Amino acid sequence: MNIVVCVKFVPDSTADQAFESDNTVDRVGVPGLLSELDEYAVEQALQLKEKNEAPDSVTVTALSVGPEGAADAIRKALQMGADAGVHVVDDAIAGSDALATSKVLAAAIKKVGDVDVIVCGMASTDGGMSVVPAMLAERLDLPQVTFASVIESQGNQFRIKRDGDIATEVIGAVAPLVLSVTDQTGEARYPSFKGIMAAKKKPLESYSLADLGVDAGEVGLSAAWTAVDSTEARPPRTAGTIVTDEDGSGAKALTEFLASKKFI
Amino acid sequence: MTEILVLVDHLEGAVRKPTYELLAIAKRLGTPSAVFIGGADKADAAVAAVTKFGAEKVYVVDDAEIKGYLVAPKAEALQQIAAQASPGAILISSSAEGKEIAGRLAVKLDSGLITDAVDVQVDGGSPVTTQSVFAGNFTVQAKVTQGTPIITVKPNAAAPEEVAGAGTVENVTVTISDSAKKAQVVASQPRQSSGRPELTEAAIVVSGGRGTGGDFSEVEGLADSLGAAVGASRAAVDSGWVPHTFQIGQTGKTVSPQLYIAAGISGAIQHRAGMQTSKTIIAINKDEEAPIFELVDFGVVGDLKSVLPAASSAITASKG
């Protein structure tokens, strides 16, 4: 079985995220890392391998499309236990929208070949659109089972549970398929010392757009089908009134504030 | 005027409020046409509801063949209606399902996609969206430059306008491919209704965190006195105190109500991502150093176990 886990290199959300002068996300000036939500995807990919009857027959490949630094995100996945890495890096990719990114990912998945399961996180921690898994399924003509909180598989039969707003659903599909997982699937493992050492010997291949047969004119900022006109930092909230509760004064002040704002 | 397609977000024919907001936005862009994909027996009620809020035309797709097959068939249905109507834009609710339909549709139609718009205005005849990104720290204005603009819009982005449209019904027969039916809902357990407003649509949200110690009764009490929805921080959800559907933040829901009250929530960046754009923010926390106080319009340093019940009583009393 071949599993590809898509991992994104994102600006650290605890650092000061910013935009470049062309309104693209600053992916160089802000420290980057493997998107926290993709760690759950790596974890579930590894668990699928470990639960397989013949784990050694399963290959988990971590795939990332991104700048030079994105190799760090792949390396983290390798340290956690993925078997191989694929990094698509090409200057022409910078500024790609989700449509172009999904096109490059789909081409890279075809290059890996005979993939049974594509695992993604539920969203990135930067763009956060949550649409790439659906776009990948569309481009590869595969079923999508997304926002999984629990994953069960037997051979190529998959069942996932997801908690929707209206109902908790069980969704079934047969691999090959695209799977996306939420943080409810369980904590992602930390790389062990052994894993960190082993990762250094694992294959990490780098591809350009030409290697994948993707026309550079179809991706990147100039080919994006959406244009950002402006980005503006939200003005900082003006400091509010803070009171300390003493013998019920807090509730009284709170009620008065609500009344002054016409909420009651 | 060009048609603007609005995908009706509904539960067994009961139209959800964000659909009315989309119709109001569609009116700014052109002539609103609703697309109802659902049971044939539920169509009449849905058509009446969207007509009341301005739909000039309603495309009705009977979902008997595709019910339970998730988003892929809905994207195919919209593709076929779009081919016929040549709409100026397609508006869809920014729910998990809505965004996935939009993603597939964008690939099918070779069209640009914008998700999670908090506002849509018109500039030179084309839609310009506003999005709130990076945990609400930035505002982005964007537009679609290729194909039919596909835009998913968050709840509360516009006020519904109760001005009746013509509501001309057009029954559409769509052809759904076999490959769109490869993932299927095999079991479904409806969630019990709390009787409180829907979290993402509520005007007021009261949330509880670690500081509740697992007892949400004070949070619920305050919520009910204000007619509010109840939310929670990830800490409260991970502790098993409330279901994941209550979670506000990066991996939960994003809310932008008129009033957000955080009780016993420290205010980690992941939580802020889900509530920072709320109009008015209030926090109650024992720890005066809690980062949530940096965001608030009004804060009380104190024990929520005493502050909340006293405030609930005062609010209930003030209503007479």
> How does the overall form of chain A come out from the CA principal axes?
globular
- How would you classify the quaternary structure? heterodimer
Overall average pLDDT of chain B: 95
* Overall morphology of chain B: elongated
Question: What's the SSE pattern of chain B?
Answer: EEEHEHEHEHEEEEEEEHEHEHEEH
Q: Which bin fits the share of residues in helices of chain A?
A: 25-40%
Main sheet makeup of chain A: 7 strands, parallel
Total strand segments of chain B: 17
Tell me how many strands of chain A there are.
14
> What's the tally of helices of chain A?
7
> What's the helix-strand series of chain A?
EEEHEHEHEHEEEEEHEHEEH
Number of helices of chain B: 8
What is the terminal-to-terminal distance of chain B?
51 Å
* Gyration radius of chain A, rounded: 22 Å
Task: Using a beta-carbon cutoff below 8 angstroms, give the protein chain pair with the largest interface and the number of residues from each chain.
Answer: A-B, 82 and 90 residues
Q: Biggest sheet of chain B, in brief?
A: 9 strands, mixed
SS content category of chain A: alpha/beta
Distance between the termini of chain A: 60 Å
* Helix fraction bin of chain B: 25-40%
Strand content of chain B: 25-35%
Q: Output the strand order for the largest sheet of chain B.
A: 9-8-7-10-6-1-4-5-11
Walk me through this protein's architecture.
A seven-stranded parallel β-sheet of chain A has the order 7-11-6-1-4-5-12, with helices on both faces. Chain A has helices at 36-51, 70-80, 98-112, 132-140, 193-199, 209-212, 249-260, and strands spanning 2-6, 9-11, 32-34, 59-65, 84-88, 117-121, 144-148, 150-154, 157-163, 167-174, 177-181, 204-207, 226-233, 241-244. The mean pLDDT of chain A is 94. Chain A is an alpha/beta fold and 264 residues long. In chain A, α2 packs across α5 (193-199) and α3 packs across α4. In chain A, 28% of the residues lie in helices and 28% in strands. Chain A has seven helices and 14 strands. Chain B has 320 residues and is of the alpha/beta class. Chain B is 28% helix and 29% strand. Chain B contains eight helices and 17 strands. Chain B has helices at residues 17-29, 43-52, 71-85, 96-109, 217-226, 234-238, 269-275, 304-318; strands at residues 3-7, 10-11, 14-15, 31-38, 57-62, 89-93, 113-123, 126-133, 138-144, 150-153, 168-171, 183-190, 204-208, 229-232, 259-263, 280-285, 298-301. Chain B has a nine-stranded mixed β-sheet, sandwiched between helices. The radius of gyration of chain B is 21 Å and the shape is elongated. At the A-B interface, α3, α4, β7, β10 and β13 of A face α3, α4, β7, β8 and β9 of B. β13 of chain A pairs antiparallel with β9 (138-144) of chain B.
